[in-house]
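Action item from last week, closing it out:
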Amino acid sequence: MNAMSRIIAIANQKGGVGKTTTAINLAASLAVAEKRVLLVDFDPQSNTTSGIGADKEDETRNIYTCLSGDVPVGECIKDTDLEWLKIIPAHRNLAGAEIELVTQIGREFFLRNILLPLKEEFDYILIDCPPSLGLLTVNALVAAESVMIPIQCEYFALEGVTDLMRTISMIRDSVNPSLELEGVVLTMYDERTNLSQQVTQEIRTYFNERVFETVIPRNVRLGEAPSFGLPVLMYEIKSRGAQSYLKLAKELIDHETKSVG
């Protein structure tokens, strides 16, 4: 098995914290560093799918048809504009999976069973979770080896994070003891405001060294890129948004290399 291979869930049950932006742009930045990356869109809203330029209306080959066992996972992996980056798209049908899985035996393990055989083929598998702590997010946390939490630099930033941490430790205690916190990413940072600086301090105090050095700024280009179906580095590589995600990818790779070595 690929020693460096890693399944990372990108989760925060609060919406609008830069979760999808982080999933798309971190995946693209890792791919530019010639890491083999699989991006799994596990959010029924399918914003990651459309934001990377994949088809969110394809009803036959997506993560939902994989989960339901209708289509083998290999047929659901699609190419993107970046050579090293593949995606398993989401579809709005995924919203129904939450209810359908409830009655299934081993319902927490469906995603894990799909992704584990793919570890050979990829260096990183990134899962974009829905903004809730329902069964889909639980599936993602059971499948993952670590969790990355994007937190927006705003009032009440830590509100809800304690629920997520509780869910993580519950999953650790029951079905996935090796689940780690990959780290916290500060997003939508505005250095002109005292608030952003206060929140940064508060989060660094709460999570200590688990916070990535790289901070993602508020950036117009980051907001525009998804409507063109492009990661920001293919839309405007010189933008601060693109540069910060390239830095975050480097930090993640360095971090893995250290922990392996």
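Closing note: The domain at 6-260 is CATH 3.40.50.300 (Rossmann fold).
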